[in-house]
Amino acid sequence: MQVTITAVGPDHRGLADPIVHDVTQAGANIHEIQMYDRDTEQLFAMILRMEWPHDLQPVAELRDRMTSIGTQKGLTIRVWARDEKHRLPRLGLCTTYRPETSLAILRDVRDGRLKAEVAVMIGNRDSCRGVAEQFGVDFHNIGDARGNPDNSRMVELFDEYDLDYVILARYMRILPPRACWEFAGGRIINLHHGLLPSFPGFRPYHDAYSHRMLTYGATCHFIVPELDAGNQIIHQSTFTVSPGTSLDEVLVIGETDNEPRCLSEGVRRVIDREVELHFHRVVRGPGAPGRSH
């Protein structure tokens, strides 16, 4: 069974040793290990992905030992295995203003296209609360009056709802590096409303329009702690307009049609295991067409 361990905490010596020693002694086969020291924040972060001998030892026992190590070393350690529990993957949708992408996910879950469960919606604004209520999903506003998010509360909710994947469905805030590390390994999925790498930033439609582009697009990608690390694209979709099409028309097509389709298809690829994230790179997963299982 594939298991991912993340560890984050104040930086000092000997943090990784007890984690690595424990899993190797138990017979785990380590596939990936990355460690980072963020000197500016004096933060240690680690991700370890491995094949765990669950037939010999339940993941729950591993989690208990990791919790103990975390207490001793001052680390927040999470142990995640998608196959540990016999259930559909649990999704959390993070939103700000626009509801279209969240609606696409909720409808595809309802209609069975996405084999997952939306466990919670979290917003730094109340704009999408009605969407959550429409589908009977809990909604939490973690923003202040100006929309500044309480990132600690957001992470608490990720844990409280036992999420497998966090979906940034037009969530117009940057997650702090610590949160990205805590849920590293392909568990945070973002919708960028432009084609990457050509049009990053907050105004990709406007930037593309200023370059007289006729083809516009959206990008669904994994979030990793290092900004601009590249190579995390899951899915891209585009649409083409005629010369003379106004920016307002481009925005309507992109926001109401193309972006929702792009995010939903990207999430489906992850849920169906057609893609995975290894060493910050997207690779074909065991569920990809043409792959033997």
What features would you describe in this structure?
The protein contains eight helices and 13 strands. By secondary structure, it is of the alpha/beta class. The protein has a seven-stranded mixed beta sheet with strand order 7-6-5-8-9-10-11, with helices on both faces. It has a four-stranded antiparallel beta sheet with strand order 2-3-1-4. A two-stranded antiparallel ribbon has the order 12-13. Helix 3 links the parallel strand 5 (90-95) and strand 6 (117-123). The longest helix is centred in the C-terminal third of the chain and has 25 residues, at 247-271.
Summarize the structure.
The protein has 293 residues and is of the alpha/beta class. It contains eight helices and 13 strands. α1 packs antiparallel against α2 and α3 runs parallel beside α8.
Attribute tags:
30% helix, globular
Question: Helices, strands, pairings?
Answer:
Layout: E1 2-10, H1 17-25, E2 29-38, E3 43-51, H2 59-73, E4 76-80, E5 90-95, H3 100-110, E6 117-123, H4 129-134, E7 138-141, H5 151-160, E8 165-168, H6 177-182, E9 188-192, H7 204-210, E10 215-222, E11 233-240, H8 247-271, E12 275-278, E13 281-284
Parallel strand pairs: 5-6, 5-8, 6-7, 8-9
Antiparallel strand pairs: 1-3, 1-4, 2-3, 9-10, 10-11, 12-13
Quote the beta fraction. Answer: 25-35%
Spell the H/E element sequence: EHEEHEEHEHEHEHEHEEHEE
Structural class: alpha/beta
Q: Rg from C-alpha positions? A: 20 Å
Number of strands: 13
